């Protein structure tokens, strides 16, 4: 566990990193319109590009991504000590409702943290690379085949955080939208990368494990809220923290973030995922059946200049 005296230093570093990144972004001058017109690629050049290439290379090769995930889990470890020390602390909105109604007493519950799996503790970038190399899009069968191969690696910082939780007597729960039929492979993968000491299927709450355990994680969080005091929620998508409603627009998703300003970086810990997620789905009206051309046009329409 990290001493409390180091927290101010870490927080200052976090702020400095953000300011530095913002300064770098502002220091690059946009090309004049005339110049942009001269170098604009024609349609044949566009076809040589792949939408996910820069994002996946950033995840796989950049020191910055590695640093951000380590930094994020270090912040989570700092926060864990505060959460354990405060008997009224809960990270779950669902649990807070149960407490307010008198249905749950936090003092009666053992502490736990909830972590998403994909792009939170397991890095699936090899799956994305396969899509790029085969020039195909995501399919349910293709994803399941990847999961059963157990090729995912641990996100940097995740194993250290999980070990810190267990050393502190905190139950680690993996709440995932991987489907229940591949839960065995998921557990084996978690064990192989050190996120589980030994196979523990009861620590994994998969989609469709029960009839009402669907993509929205509210039902599963509510069930867990009656069994454990939920100290932290860790994930890469907004639905890992609270409901965003059915097929929310990008505006609605940002409103959800703004409505809980004190939770981010304290009770809710979010990791970066530039490859996919609700943020991308909201830009294409949650329609996965559209043609690639239509999806691209929909995304481009959201550019701000």
Automatic annotation (TrEMBL):
Leader peptide range in chain numbering: 1-21
Entries under InterPro entries matching the protein: Acid_phosphat_B-like, HAD-like_sf, HAD_sf, Lipo_e_P4
Key words, A-Z: Lipoprotein, Signal
GO cellular component, one term: cell outer membrane
Gene3D superfamilies: HAD superfamily/HAD-like
Name this protein carries in UniProt: Lipoprotein E
Organism, as annotated: Mariniblastus fucicola
